[in-house]
Task: structure prediction
Amino acid sequence: MVKQKSLKPKSLRLVITTMLLSVLFLACVDNTKKAEYESTVDIPVSREMIAELTSPPNVPTPVGRRKAKKLIVNMEILEQEGTMTDGTTYNYWTFGGSVPGSFIRTRVGDEVEFTLSNHPDNKLPHNIDLHAVTGPGGGATSSFVAPGHEKKFNFKTLNAGLYVYHCATAPVGMHIANGMYGLILVEPEGGLPPVDKEYYIMQGDFYTKGKNGDPGLQAFDMQKAVDEDADYVVFNGRVGALTGDNAITANVGETVRLYVGNGGPNLVSSFHVIGEIFDKVHVEGGSIINKDVQTTLIPAGGATIVEFRVDVPGTFILVDHSIFRAFNKGALGMLKVNGEEDKRIYSGVVQEGIYQPEGGGIQIMPNGDDKKPTVNVSKTLAEKMESGKQIYMQTCFACHQAEGQGIPSAFPPLAESDYLNADVNRAIGIVLRGKTGEITVNGEKYNSVMTRQAISNDEIADVMTYIYNSWGNNKTNVTKAQVDQIKNGH
Ligand code: CU
Result:
């Protein structure tokens, strides 16, 4: 039995008095703090500083405990051609030369002196509407600026949060669709809690005269934009801005904070990181914090802050979980995490076997090869490599990985693969028909299932040429005729 100590009336009185006093004391402290200013508009500013602006995926230094300041922001508008995807370019209109535009980091109570300059080589007038501004047009009415001119206006940051800014010059949709958006962060008093890694990501949808992947300089398509029929949905302005060598990185045990915005102009984003759970989500970029979230919705013209600790190594894929956008339109990024495995959290494959119910076999996906017109144009190796890489990133990448390294004990490597290099016809046959059963690649046994791939013979030739001419393979140039022959040979 636990012996309970009873409080005597005298000590009870003492306890109550102490409690009352502490409540009073706390109230006093609170009052003094509040008395500093009645609302954020009264926060005094001390001195001037020039704002650090960064291009994505980087963010400026956290504000920490610094006092509110007069913050000088100099933003330059540049209209410039850039890469949308390999072989495809686009005329981007940008704030600061990047899509999304430069990241602006402020704290509540800052007095921002904003200068917007329109480069003399630009063709059009522009302006800026910052959602962090309280005032007509969010600054748009005061910042309309012709090429070769600049405009200055001031605003006070009254509300903490993560805000979108964008051009609001008519036709507004077109200016946004061409990349004119970015994020401005207003940190609360004392700053956001420190984390190990911070990154800047923004989704946008693009509308081009040609289809997704059509080569050359692609013009903006107004009708597709009105119909909300996007050709590209991407992070940070283009396909692959956050994949491969451009991936964002972290080490096991670190906390990662992502400032994620959605420029639109049309689509909302179902933002998700495959293999991670957001420990915290600053809902809609505001002050409510939700916890343990899988996917968070980011409206067009909205933003969110997500935070999570990375516990195990690997490549974590960032997607818009409207998933065709991720795998077919470009809304895919990567977070590469280095460090020690933790088998308590994730085991990896512990057993692998073949499961074939009666009547089962290799799953057949529609090929569509019969419907496609025969392409008789002979492509150069460079052209095949380019097309092959795109097919690879859409079709093969999930299992065989970006550098052809495969996934240990699940999917064999294609890089420096003895199995691949030994017999090209066998390899073509596998892509055409699928493969099941044990094979040995570079001395390791694999016993997985590869389905027949839903791509044309021409595409098979391109993607295999790409594979054979990458990652230390034997540089075989696979032709469509060769693929046709293997297909008809059985
Ligand atoms: Cu504009």
About this structure: The longest strand covers residues 70-85.
